[in-house]
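Hello,

I think I submitted the calcium ion job twice by accident. Can you confirm which output corresponds to this input? Input:
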Amino acid sequence: MGQVLAWGGAVTIVALVSLGSIGALPSAQAAGGGPATAAASVYVVSPSGSDDNPGSLGAPFATIAKAAEVVAPGDTVMLRGGIYRGRVTFTRGGSAAEPIAFIAYQAEVPVIDGEGVAVGEQEALVTVTEGADHVALSGLTVRNSSGAAMKIYGDHATVMGCKVTKAEYQGIQIRGAAGVRCIGNEIWNVCRMNAERELEGGWPAALAAWESKEVSFIGNVVHDNHGEGISVWKGAEDCVIMGNQVYDNWSVNVYLDNAKRALVAANFIYSTADAFQSHRDPAIGVAVADEDYSEWGDEGWKADGGEHVVRNNIILNCSRGISFWKYVPGSGVKDCSFVYNTIAGTWEYGIRISEGENSGTQFANNIVVSRAGETLSVTKTGGLAFRHNLFWDSTGKPSDKFGWGGQRFDFRLWESQSRELKANLWADPQLSDTAAGEPDGAKLTRDSPAMDAGSSAGAPRFDYWGYPRPTDGNGDRIRAPDIGAHEYGAER
Ligand SMILES: [Ca+2]
Ligand SMILES: [Ca+2]
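Support: Only one job matched these inputs. Its output is below.
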């Protein structure tokens, strides 16, 4: 897939890190309030400042809104620590060469707080408006919104190192935008409109993109939210969900709904629950669906998701590891590739594909260990290939763990049902310790039957930890990829 390279993330991180160092500039340079260079100004905002000030380090503005009014392309605004109460709207944008950055001053903690502020359910406490492109927000805490915490409509925005909590609706939502990057944020306790966790539908997502393209969600921690965790949905194309920790969200941890060409890679997705209470607790690991949007005023709407790549993820202790649910006619798992994932400890299904006009989809080189229910359940069997997967059920009861076309089989009988089912294994993968709640628990141990048992089909060049594969981890001179998200011995 080209998305990772297209993301250009390394460049952005370098750019933001260098922006961050502006906070360490000699105060004299920032204190002028005017241009730090001929082209760019550096402004400072502090809750103890005044909007009548010039916006310098010695005489800062009081409100972020004031800084947002005066910035020009290339400018940087440094936010001193403290509480900024009220809504903030960013309407001025920059360009690729001259972004506008609003960043925490050194290690201080600027907090945008909506307590007591009226924010409508379709609105957000912090908004980057359409046309405000190339705005970067870094190191902010955004909390207490009666609507969403943040909504991003501008292209090529960057939201980095922010903490987002206590919103009734979404944490961060990107809509109608291209090239937005959310990197290294923590989002928890949002979607509080479903805090009772009793609704049977209609909850939002903590971190979401829709009607957007080339949005990247990298290295975020998304947990304990009362709706979905990370969602790319309804017209989200070419989005990347990579290196995130997603856990203890309500319904689905990672959701691809009416989305196209999502890359879901090297995420750690899990539940800390120690008991299975309902069909939504714990949440599903990764779900694919096309929910029904035909009544949203789009005459020509039809189910249109697919072409996703889901690889190198570790999915532990969820209700279902990977799931598809058919909502509308024509929907199915289409041209998707689920490869080199490690799924363990599922309460309901390891993999569940309900109905669906499925086509062109492979499940290969995955470890799937159920703890209850079925290891694999597929209602409509066409269009799906399962090869070189390693299946197991930790109860040690192998019978009836494979639902296939409305019947239930044991492993051997299941594999004989179709020539699309080939070279799978039924064996204990001997994972390190999946109860530990750490990705390392999904590592193979030395005698694992997953070692060197993978095929090259869809094999990523790295494992979950970024170490190269294939490696001859056990020293028997067979150098082949290991099944699952770990390449044993690659880190040596
Ligand atoms: Ca190997
Ligand atoms: Ca070997």
